[in-house]
Amino acid sequence: MAHTPSDALVFFGATGDLAYKKIFPALQAMVKRGSLHVPIVGVAKSDWNLEQFQARALDSLEKHGGVDRAAFQTLRNLLRYVDGDYNDPATFEAIRRELGTCERPAYYLAIPPSLFGLVVRQLGHSGCAQGARVVLEKPFGTDLASARRLNEILHGTFDESAILRIDHYLGKRPVHNMIYSRFANSFLESFWNRTHVESVQLTMAEDFGVQGRGGFYDQTGAIRDVVQNHLFQIMTNLAMDPPVRADSESIRDEKVKVLRAIPPLEIGNIVRGQFRGYRSEKGVSPTSQTETFAAIKLEVNSWRWQGVPFYIRAGKCLPVTCTEVVLRLKRPPSVFLSSDIRPNHFRFRISPDVTFGLGMMVKAHCDELRGESQEMLLMREERADDMGAYERLLRDAMAGDPTLFAREDYVEEAWRIVDPVLNAGGPVCDYEPGTWGPDDACAHIVPPDGWHDPTITTAQAAAHAA
Ligand code: BG6
Fold it and tell me: What is the pLDDT of residues 70-91, one digit of tens each?
């Protein structure tokens, strides 16, 4: 089953937002690259027919990425549509009919998580699940207990090897390339450990708010929305040990080991913030205590990392949109008796540009023994034909390659870590939109030598590219 290509793609939620913004563009890109030839069955309850569904696909492409006439024509011919209620067994009979002789479909659940259980059970009862695999959108549960329940439901119908849990950050090339860069460069390995690293910090900053998703976001908050999934995926790529082989399970085993080494997050090791104005957003409670900013401190009690604090911050309405990682090294012994020595660092920016920065002290232009911190920069240009995250994930899902998907034990470990703070309440401090979260009085989670300011390096990067 694993690594046997799917011979059809069935996606639920076919008339929804995700399909409109991400899935149709990914499907067209796959057709264009020659990696998609099988029937694609959209399923939804919208009282639509196939022509309306095809028109929706065209409209989606016009708005999101553009129409490639030839690729769209092929895509259009591959599309099928089933309109029906997910509660109704007749919907699943209709899917079976549309699938014709296909024997190994991939079911992609681009629907609200509250419907996952229902659809999975229906797939099981109707016989549709035979020989199939299932792909689920994030969020996978809302805490440890709900993730476990969901895993149980899934395992009632599908084998773990046939379950692919999407975290679109894993589909981003720079995120996966972290593993390549780490283990294809021996000089990195020489300092990538507790002997040399003083602290690690990850920032995922967004300069926009909840963009009309207030109803969803208010039930979610920053920890559930991006920390437990996207940022933990980045953290585990950064902290994992070398896999013994490059296959999916060897890589996923190492990532889970990192999470296992992390004790549950203590309430004293989190700062929660909320941008001013959030409570007036549509769908948000006027008394909301949901965090739109979080900063946390974790320990990774592994042989490699014990004693090195890991700091993670994420937030909406911050000064810039950027995701990056900074490892600060320990200071050298003080030969020069000068206080201006800044720790060396290694910076890896994932977006909006892909940059590696190696920070080192160089002597200033003066006769005294004074220096300044400078960065050696390596920037990777994105290419116009680079594969988007959804294209890569759908391609791998159809091929049955689970490397870029979260495994059962991984999602449960990730929830275990954040579970204690999810419902613990605690203060949520206001911050002004366009600032770096709550001010000093509230913000006690700060790495030694402070948070790195990505706006400085954004400007440097822009100057470098000019
Ligand atoms: C989503 C979150 O998973 O990721 C959003 O729900 C967030 O709140 C988004 O904005 C960020 O993704 P990207 O690819 O734009 O960095």
Answer: 999 999 999 999 999 999 999 9
